């Protein structure tokens, strides 16, 4: 179980980093365009970024499937794990004050 969660977390972090890279690349391209850029050029940059984000979204969906399978197979354990994580987060946040 821990391996599934660790793998999914690592995958989510990878997808998040890739999404940030795609958005940074699109922003860079938009900054480099001249003010007089045509609408087609702007649309092409935005379409390219949108396609990359859709691919990342699909990849993220595949990374979540193992966790969903675990939750369906072990619902009680999943609830206990979620409650424990919530209690731990609450305790850590309470200590900050």
UniProtKB/TrEMBL annotation:
Coiled coil: 12-59
Record keywords: Coiled coil, Membrane, Transmembrane, Transmembrane helix
Spans through the membrane: 76-94
InterPro entries in UniProt: DUF883_C
Residue ranges of domain DUF883 in the record: 70-96
Pfam families, per database record: DUF883_C
Protein name per UniProt: DUF883 domain-containing protein
Organism: Methanocella conradii (strain DSM 24694 / JCM 17849 / CGMCC 1.5162 / HZ254)
């Amino acid at each position: 179980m821990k391996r599934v969660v660790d793998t999914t977390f690592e995958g989510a972090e990878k997808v998040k980093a890739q999404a940030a890279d795609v958005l940074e690349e699109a922003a860079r391209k938009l900054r480099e365009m001249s003010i007089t850029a045509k609408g087609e050029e702007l649309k092409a940059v935005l379409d390219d970024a949108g396609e990359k984000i859709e691919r990342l979204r699909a990849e993220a969906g595949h990374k979540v499937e193992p966790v969903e399978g675990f939750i369906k197979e072990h619902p009680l354990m999943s609830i206990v794990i979620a409650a424990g994580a919530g209690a731990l987060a609450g305790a850590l946040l309470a200590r900050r004050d």
